[in-house]
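Deliverable D4.2, example record:
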Amino acid sequence: MPAAHAFLVAAIVAVLVIAHPDGSAAQRTPDADGNPRFEVVSIRPVGDDRKIQTNNGVNILPGGRLEANEAMLTHVVRFAYDLQPVQRIIGGEALLTKRFTIKAVSAGDTPVPRRAGVLGTQWDRSAFTEMARTMLAERFALRTHWQEEMVTLQVLTLATPGQTGPNLTRRSTTCVQPPALQNAASDAVRCGVRLNNGVVSGTVESLSNFADNLWLWTTSMNGNGVIFVDDTGLDGSFDVATRFNVLTLPGNAGVVNPTRQPYEDYPSFTDALRTDLGLRIESRRRQVRMLVIDHIEPPTEN
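Output generated by the structure prediction step:
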């Protein structure tokens, strides 16, 4: 693992990028069993000799298109089954770690519709996940089933019931995800939170989203992300501001910098969450559905 002092900014690589402004209903072509499918699919394996450092994911693009550029198949499967960080894939490792460039086009435009939720207007990618599952079944002969497992999670709760900390402020309006900014009001606030040398600032769409960011930060620090889930019972967007010693993030026990860094004088991670945000972390065991690969093959020819 690289020295912790090299961790200047947590680089968050999105598994999904939505770049479609349209909000109308999706148009899909069913297969023989009635499952929605793409009209055209091209799958090109990436040679094992290609040294690719980036963690490419799945992109939804205008024109009803889905693209994965030199992406590991595991990311495509995670997208298709809408897996959360806590949900792992069991089996199929030999093929899931292979990279492919996938280009798929649906019938019509198949825009990403907006849907109303407790957090306001959100993006609904279910039309594309359904078609991606059909594509995996048709081209990779993918068969799966679900299996429940007990896992240990780090659960975010309120330190004092009904009360947040001074630096966790609920917004009167929901922040806007980047794909929707072009159609948003001029005073709209972009969703996004940043960790830079121990200083956290930004706006989260929800505290569940904040929990996802904690997982990303621990992944960036030590390669083995610690799973956090939100159990505060609060909805809505929040402005977040705190600072903490990144060496005290869960999973970083025993990490020592060659030279002392300024953030080492900040409070510990748990103290900062409690004092600034009014949150505490509890370890809990919960049942979580895992995706089991029963069968998967190299893709059929285009």
